[in-house]
Amino acid sequence: MWLKPNKMIQEQTLEQELTVAKKKSAKPMLWVSMISMVMFFAGLTSAYVISMKRDDWVSFDLPDAFHISTFLIVASSITLFLSQRFLKQDKRQLSLTMVVITLILGIGFIWQQYVGFNQLKSIGLYFTGPESTVSTSFIIGITFMHILHLLAGIIVLSVVIYNHFKYKYKPNDMLGFELGAIFWHFVDILWIYLFFFFYFIK
Predict the structure, then answer these.
(1) Would you state the torsion angle of the CA atoms of residues 93, 99, 100, 104, taken in this order, to the nearest 10 degrees?
(2) N or C: which end of the chain has fewer CB within 10 A?
(3) Long-range pairs of 191-200 with CB within 8 A, sequence gap ≥ 24
(4) How far is CA 119 from CA 64, 114, 127, 184, 194, in A?
(5) What pTM value is reported for the model?
(6) What tens digit of pLDDT does each residue of 190-199 get?
(7) What Rg do the C-alpha atoms of the chain give, in angstroms?
């Protein structure tokens, strides 16, 4: 008579242990993936510096839209930080509002990057083709790779918002939110690095 209840308890205990194990491994796995991304962009920017020695290297100022996009993505990190803080205080509506604003700012960042590409084209600087330059190809190429990572961040934010609507986050259980926030802040810092790199090294 006691076998079935004992089996249920064992299954519940096993499930809890698996959940704890997943939580413990989630952040380390995220950090490993971010380190690999850092190495990837470090390699690209190193190639940029080496290519500056070429005779056909052309220097130019970053388009205004890139400055605007930098402001937007910094603002998005601030709103996401506030969202996480409000969630810890169990202010769910404020938290949800802030994370939605973060998503909107992220989309605005991508739009301004696109505007920036068009601004480069308007002054005769192209990514490929006979009118392209090595410096333009590097900047647009590296920026585009960052946009791809940011698109992944947009997907992550969308999942966070969905889970927020489903009340899956609590002040004492918000691992999914924290992982999404870490990734978003990482993408933010990555762009700030790239922006100042291109601003001062040209």
Answers:
(1) 160
(2) N
(3) 191/69, 191/70, 191/73, 191/109, 191/146, 191/150, 192/70, 192/73, 192/74, 193/41, 194/41, 194/45, 194/142, 194/143, 194/146, 195/62, 195/66, 195/70, 197/45, 197/48, 198/62, 198/66, 198/139, 199/62
(4) 8, 9, 12, 26, 18
(5) 0.83
(6) 999 999 998 8
(7) 22
